[in-house]
Amino acid sequence: MASRISQPLIKALLALLMVSLTLGSSDVPFIVAHKKASLTRLKSGAERVSVSIDIYNQGSLTAYDVSLTDDSWPQDVFEVASGNISKSWERLDAGGIVSHSFELEAKAKGIFQGAPAIIKFRIPTKAALQEAFTTPILPLDVLADRPPEKKFEWRLLAKYGSLISVVTIVVLFVYLLATPSKSSAAKGSKKKR
Fold it and tell me: TM spans, by residue (predicted)?
């Protein structure tokens, strides 16, 4: 009885495996996109957001009429400082990579959670445009009150650097005097014979 149930189950699993292998190996572009954003504080107190989007075609066919649009930046919070929030490419070959970057200047203070950018592309076998999305970005704390970063204190090095170097030289000298050399250890073993 167990074999009667297991044989149709095995056949169904094999059929499912064959269908998934057929669909997995079909010839289509497969778009993977990564969106990165970083904050830069300017000396004037303003803050810029540098956005970089990398688009990869991991499929086996070329994607045509590739367009990127990143409308997730509200105009009342951000102003485009350089570049454009949209870009188009005629084609993206299989295994190819394209990148796009732009900078925004923050106008308002607060935490901002950006949405993924939208990538539209055309496949030669389908009339409708296909869509892909980038990865979302981590929340950005725009114009936040941050404590100043601890930088290396050069004035401490200038003040105590000579003292540290003298102490280091004295310690090395004492170490060299206290440890026996290999040649004197070899001579001592010859004298015992």
Answer: 12-33, 156-178
List the chain domain ranges.
Answer: 26-142
pLDDT in tens, 60-107: 889 999 999 999 888 888 999 999 999 999 999 999 999 999 999 988
**Structural contact between residues 36 and 114, judged by C-beta atoms closer than 8 angstroms:** no
- Integer Cα distance of 63 and 27 in angstroms: 11
Q: Per CATH, the architecture of 26-142 is what?
A: Sandwich (2.60)
